Write the C-alpha cells for this entry.
Amino acid sequence: MKTSSLWGTPQSRYYRLLQRIEENTPAGQPPTMAVIGCADGKYVLPAARRGFKVWAIDIDEVALFGGYKKDLTGEVLMPGLASRVKAEGLEDLVEVVHGDFMAAPPQQKFDAVFTSGALQYSNNLEHSLEQMVTEVGACVKPGGLLYIDYMLPYEEKYQGRAICPEAPWWKEYFTSRPVWEVKHNRVMPPTLDKAHVEYPVDHYHQWGHLLARRTAA
C-alpha cells in the first residue's frame, strides 16, 4: 500500500539526491539519512521505500501522529507520518521523533542529512542560523552529504528575518569551513507554489538548494 503526503510529492531533484546517496554508500549497507523537519513524510517515505534507514524529526505532533489541518476545503484529516510508515510496512526503516532538533539532536551520524525550509520557520528565531546549520552538519558522517533547501527573503514576511539571509551567506558559511566541500549552491527564480495544507492560498517562494560533502570529522 502506497500512501501520500498532504504536502505533495518531492521534486525530481530529490530522487537524484537519493541516487547520489546510494552511490556514495558502501556496497551491502543500507544508506542512513536524517530528515530534519519531516512533517508527514513527504521526503521520508520515498527514501524508506528504497531501503534507506531514516531518522525523522519534527515538532508538529499532528503531522507525525495524525489529526486535523486546514486546507482550501477547511479541516482535513492528516493520517500522520507514523500511520503512513505502518501502512507501508516500513517500521523497521523509519524512526519517528517528536521534538525540537536543537534540543534533541540524534545520538548518531548519517550518510546524509536533508532539510527543506525548516530552518527558516519562526519557531527557530531563538537560534542563530549559524548555530542551526552547525548542528545539522554535525550529524553528517565524514564523506557524507548534507542537502539544504533554504528559503530566500522573497516574501515580505521573510525579509529582514535574521535566519533567512540572501544566498551569499550560505556560500560563505561552507567555504569558510575546511570540513566541507560544496558541490552546488543553486538559487532558483521565484516560483508559484499552489495552495496546500497549512497555507491554503497560492503563494510565491524563492528557494536555494545547497549540497555539500563533509570531508572530515
About this structure: The CA atoms of residues 30 and 51 lie 6 Å apart. The longest strand covers residues 140-151.
